Amino acid sequence: MSKDPSLERYSRQMRFGGILEKGQRKLLEARVTLCGCGALGTVIANALVRAGVGFVRIVDRDFIENHNLQRQVLFDEADIAANLPKAEAAARKLRIVNSSVTVEAVVTDIDRTNILELSKDADIILDGTDNFEIRYLINDVSVKFGKPWVYGGSIGSHGQTMTIIPGQTPCLRCVFEAAPAPGEAGTCETAGVLAPIVSIIASFQVAECLKILTGQPETINRELVYIDVWENISRRIKIAPLLGKVDCPCCQRKKFEWLEGDQGSQTTSLCGRNAVQVAHRVASKLNFEEMASHLKLMGGEVSFNRFLLKFTAEGHEFTVFPDGRAIIKGTSDLDKARVLYAKYIGH
Fold first, then answer.
1. In the CATH scheme, what architecture does the domain 5-242 have?
2. What CATH class does 267-344 carry?
3. What is the per-residue pLDDT across 327-338, written as a single tens digit (0 to 9) for each?
4. CA dist., res. 220 & res. 225, Å (int)
């Protein structure tokens, strides 16, 4: 066992034959981009930082609400009171957990305009999101630039995960060529979600990540893993034979439809929230002080800090971010959300 005192905190991990000191040093040099810091993302981020992954970039567009605390393990009531975005709150906690690694918080919506910048220096991308639009974007980047990623999703009592190494495994679109249509798949609101399945799927994702980052891709899972903790079901679906055998638009035809903007939208209905996100990027950051003064003239309550601004109008709660995005609560109607955004925030 190493006598290096900087490695002492990882001594139990290094006793495992799959890691050892050689693997630990690789982890300390590794860089990860984590897309999403909700249920899956908080479990993933916590495990990565404790394992000593040297650089973890946490990207998330959202802020913390009371109902998140049931399963999003890095947050507490004080974060809600402080109006902290998820990425920032997670990064603050994790820097206290392990000050020897770098945790970067990026509060933004992942889309085709920024995903390359967010992931270009990462060794691997991990999926902590709750929507297929971002997953297909990640998949496009993965296949186009040969970067591995790990998909994961959970809803109700079940979840699934698969590992994608371009050229070695099928990509996401080999298995799921198109995203589920609205209403086809359950949401957090319609089906709920249990914390245990979140932790199980996220832990599978982290284990796969550690295999890849320590240079052992031959050990990865090459099947689609499906688990239901309530129905006591565990399945491993053989997907490896799909590699090169299906007419995949992404990895076979090299059509990167999500990255090139042929697919996707700027307005998103948020999972289980009765809320809509309207993304409207501006040339410069919003001036919250100026916005607040105008909004207060309308007689409503307005609060803001450097991370976000909140106000209520027409029975809807608005949360506005410096990059011009807004989450409008109280509607799932995309057109209505766009109208409200234009009325109170601008075109």
1. 3-Layer(aba) Sandwich (3.40)
2. alpha beta
3. 999 998 887 887
4. 12
